Every structure is written in structure tokens, then in C-alpha cells.
Amino acid sequence: MKKKGGEPKDAGGGLARRGLPRCSVRDYGLCMASLLLFCLGSLFYQVNGGPPQLLLQLRSYLGNSTFLDDHGPPPPKILPFPSQVVYNRVGKCGSRTVVLLLRILSERHGFNLVTSDIHNKTRLTKNEQMELIRNISTAEQPYLFTRHVHFLNFTRFGVEQPVYINIIRDPVNRFLSNYFFRRFGDWRGEQNHMIRTPGMKEEERYLDINRCILENYPECSNPRLFYIIPYFCGQHPKCRDPGEWALERAKQNVNENFLLVGILEELEDVLLLLERFLPHYFKDVLSIYKNPEHRKLGNLTVTVKKTVPSPDAIHVLYQRMKYEYEFYYYIKEQFHLLKRKFGLKSNIKPLPRPEFLIPIPLETEEPIEDNEEQNDEKWLEDIYKR
Ligand SMILES: *[C@@H]1O[C@H](CO)[C@@H](O)[C@H](O)[C@H]1NC(C)=O
Ligand SMILES: *[C@@H]1O[C@H](CO)[C@@H](O)[C@H](O)[C@H]1NC(C)=O
Ligand SMILES: *[C@@H]1O[C@H](CO)[C@@H](O)[C@H](O)[C@H]1NC(C)=O
Ligand SMILES: *[C@@H]1O[C@H](CO)[C@@H](O)[C@H](O)[C@H]1NC(C)=O
Ligand SMILES: *[C@@H]1O[C@H](CO)[C@@H](O)[C@H](O)[C@H]1NC(C)=O
């Protein structure tokens, strides 16, 4: 008031010239009317020795009113916003990279990252399932639970089903990665494998991959090659039986329980979509991932002695992994559909088919992998012996 009064001449012209909004007569009227209302209210207040009924009612209305009363329920969110997320990470599919990112993210965004010390048990008895599910569901929300574990059906135990996320990769590449990792470790050094698989016999460690495949060693045959699908199918014994039933169950579970299943070959887009779907968990994940500091931390260079199996051997492997590939292609298609929906282009050059015949570079940059032995294969041998 003082200012305006002090410089009346300049104010009007100056304001207009700068294009600031000028008060219309209507605005002025409204302003005056509310002032009058206030004055009248104040007068009533003083005259009656207390607030008039009108003001009380008004206040009580305003006081009780919530956004919901005024506007009805908010429009349903286009993206779900869960506070219970499970990442039942598949081995050798970049999960160590993602867990490293999750550690950083959980501090930044303040969610509860629940990990497990058990790395070699993907299959649980009914009691173990119940205990684990109880444990998970009592974690402070928002939580993200992660472990190498086959899909758990929370509703079966009367607990609300969390939202699942996961990442898979080309099955033959996953298999090869695991094969050499078990034997020779990764960039953490050659000595590493002695700690990881001390019990492994020299004979097994230096087993030629072509022999393993072509001479039907258990490690290179079914049911051991049936690896990815059980993570999505679940704990039912039939889920580990390479076949149509498990495949269909896995697909159904993906549709009903998984918010996103990404493919490692397009990890940056996976992270981008996670950021969009679960911002409370994954906001800024891509910039953290791309940050050179973080890359240094990770040291993504793989130095394992990877040898490329012969085309014949890869072909055999591919045939043995028929269901795994059917599932992988299904996931890939869904992932690309989702990407298109969110306006992401596939910046991956279309590979000439068949993909599995493309030699795997000996020194590829790969995400850091689990420092974990996947020992949960005794049961596979049992099945194999039958
Ligand atoms: C507001 O709440 C008070 C007490 O909580 C209640 O008596 C009153 O009726 C409520 N008013 C409205 C408009 O809901
Ligand atoms: C459940 O939590 C308790 C206490 O944190 C822990 O001792 C137990 O091992 C957990 N069980 C499972 C199956 O994770
Ligand atoms: C989970 O369990 C419930 C209750 O037993 C059952 O109805 C449902 O089909 C199961 N879902 C899956 C994916 O196994
Ligand atoms: C990664 O580790 C290898 C072997 O320890 C080392 O030679 C290389 O410089 C490291 N790279 C980065 C980017 O830190
Ligand atoms: C898992 O690893 C632990 C040691 O890390 C071992 O004692 C246990 O027998 C393993 N379990 C299976 C199923 O291989």
C-alpha cells in the first residue's frame, strides 16, 4: 500500500509497459466484496461476543473438507505405485549390477532394501515358503526384496501379493556365462574361482564346453538347461519339468504378477522403464548407471576364459533350450511392446537370425555378476538320474 501510494504516477504507467496484469473492474469488485465480508464477519464477531454461526459453519466445512470430498476419488493412476516389490533375480542376468544400483538407490530414496544371505536355494518347501513370505511381508514398507528364488505365491498363504520385477537374457548366453563363471570366475581375478568352487575337480573345471554339450554331460543337458522358466513358473514341482505346462504357467505369472520383465541386452531401457514405473525406487537410476564413477566401481570388464562353442554345439544347445527360447522370445516381444508404448525406440540393430549363431565376443563388456555359487542343482541331478 505504502509503495503504491508513494509513487502513484510512475507505478501505473510502468506496470502497464512491463505488461503486468492490470486489475479489471470485476477483480476489483471481488476484492472489495471479500474485504466487506471480512469486515462484516469481524463486526458480527465483536457484536455477538463470539463467532457467528455462519463463520462456524464455514470453518467446520473447510476444516473437515478433504480433497476427496471436493473432487471425488482421484483419477486412477496410470502407473501403479506399489510399496511392496520383489525382484526374484535370475542368476547371470545382470542381477549384481542391479543390486549394486539398488544399494545406492535405497539410500537416496529411503526405501527398505531387503536382501538375503542365501544365494543357492531357489526352491523351498512349503514351510520355508510360508516363513519367507511372512518375513518379507512384515518388512517395513516401501520395501524391495531380492533373492535368487523361484516365484512365490503370496496369495496362497493369505498374504497380499507384491509386485514382481525381473530381468532375463538370451538363454544360450546366460548358460555360457554361468559355465565359464563357475570355472574361472570373472574380473575379480583368476584366484577367485578357487574360493568359489574349491570342490571342483580339475577334470570338471577344464572340461571342454563342446564335449560337455555333445557328449550329454548333465551340466549341459536338460533339466539343467531349464533354468529361467522356473523363476517365473513357481515352486510347484512341475515348474522344473522342461515342458509346455511350466512354460504356460510362467507366461501366465508374468502377465498377472510381474510389472516388468526386462531383457539384459537392453539394460538401459529396462532401467528407464523401471524409473517410470517405480519412481519411488528407481528415480535417477539411469544417470547413476551411466555415471563414470559408478562404472569404475563396477569394473565391467570380463576377463574369464570364454571360448565359443562350435556352431554344432550351439545348435544342439539351442534345441535343448526350446522352451527357454520360447519364453525368452515371448518376454522380448512384450518388452518391445512396452517400450513402444512409452515411446522408446529400439536402438538395438536387428540381428540377422538365427541369433545364436553369432559368435560371442571373447571380451564383451558385461554387467558385474553375482559373486554367488549356484549350487541348487543337486535336485536336478536327482531328476537326471531317474
Ligand atoms: C466436521 O466435523 C465435526 C466434528 O468432527 C462434525 O460435527 C461436523 O458435522 C463435520 N462437518 C462436516 C461438514 O462434515
Ligand atoms: C526370517 O527372519 C528372521 C529374523 O530376521 C531370520 O532369523 C530368519 O532366518 C528369516 N527366515 C527366512 C526364511 O528368511
Ligand atoms: C496362487 O495361489 C492361489 C490360492 O491357492 C491360487 O488361486 C492361484 O492360482 C495361485 N497362483 C499362481 C500363479 O500359482
Ligand atoms: C578393471 O580391472 C582390471 C583388472 O583388475 C584393471 O586392469 C582395469 O584397469 C580395471 N578397469 C577399470 C575401469 O577400473
Ligand atoms: C548353500 O551354500 C551353503 C554354504 O554357502 C551350503 O552349506 C549349503 O549346503 C548350500 N545349499 C545347497 C542346497 O547347495
TrEMBL record:
Keywords for this entry? Glycoprotein, Golgi apparatus, Membrane, Signal-anchor, Transferase, Transmembrane, Transmembrane helix
Q: How does it sit in the membrane?
A: Single-pass type II membrane protein
Pfam families with a match to the protein in the record? Sulfotransfer_2
Any one GO CC term of this protein is: Golgi membrane
Classify the main location.
Golgi
MF annotations from Gene Ontology = sulfotransferase activity
Tell me where it resides. Answer: Golgi apparatus membrane
Q: Where is the composition biased (Basic and acidic residues)?
A: 376-386
- Annotated region (Disordered) at 365-386
The residue ranges flagged as biased composition, category Acidic residues, are: 365-375
For this protein, the record's InterPro entries field holds: Heparan_SO4_2-O-STrfase (IPR007734), P-loop_NTPase (IPR027417), Sulfotransferase (IPR005331)
Which residue ranges does UniProt annotate as crossing the membrane?
Answer: 28-47
Similarity field:
Belongs to the sulfotransferase 3 family.
Q: What is this protein called?
A: Uronyl 2-sulfotransferase
Species assigned in the record:
Geotrypetes seraphini (Gaboon caecilian)
Encoding gene (name): UST
